[in-house]
Amino acid sequence: MHVTLSVNGTEHALDIDPRTTLLDALRDHLDLTGTKKGCDHGQCGACTILLDGKRINSCLTLAVMHEGDAITTVEGLSTPDALSPLQAAFVAHDGYQCGYCTPGQICSATGMLEEIAAGWPSHVTDDLEADPALTREEISERMSGNLCRCSAYPNIVDAIAEVGGAAK
């Protein structure tokens, strides 16, 4: 099947099997290997990308469903010469150990901060206007779909808190 995907601001024409996941299209057809295949069941978050600015697990959706959507992978968040604020914070706070989950963590955190900026409600704090501080508990809850087998969670939360202006 022919599909054109807009990935990191560039159009890519692909001829793929209609059963190809977006994750496999990114990795195997576009050589964008920053997005990782972890569980391939939507349980770990290693494959998190941004689709029209919202975070999704790319292993759970088919590539042919996303013609016309804006797809952003970790490669699209920065350039080799200039890290995104979250990437820089992950480095500064040692928010990774093996690094396998890091691209998904960074994409998810980017999407999470956009959700907060857009006023999306919280499961932890019902009214962000009453308590605008992004707490560690809030960050942990909103990032709960992204697992880190090395357990670098405190450092990941520190990095997100720095960029999100959270109260520690």
Automatic annotation (TrEMBL):
Segments crossing the lipid bilayer: none
Source superkingdom: Bacteria
Domain named 2Fe-2S ferredoxin-type: residues: 1-77
Keywords: 2Fe-2S, Iron, Iron-sulfur, Metal-binding, Oxidoreductase
One Pfam family, short name: Fer2_2
One MF annotation (Gene Ontology) recorded for this entry: 2 iron, 2 sulfur cluster binding
InterPro entries assigned: 2Fe-2S-bd, 2Fe-2S-bd_dom_sf, 2Fe-2S_ferredoxin-like_sf, 2Fe-2S_ferredoxin-type, 2Fe2S_fd_BS, Aldehyde_Oxdr_Iron-Sulfur, Beta-grasp_dom_sf
Name of the protein: 2Fe-2S iron-sulfur cluster binding domain-containing protein
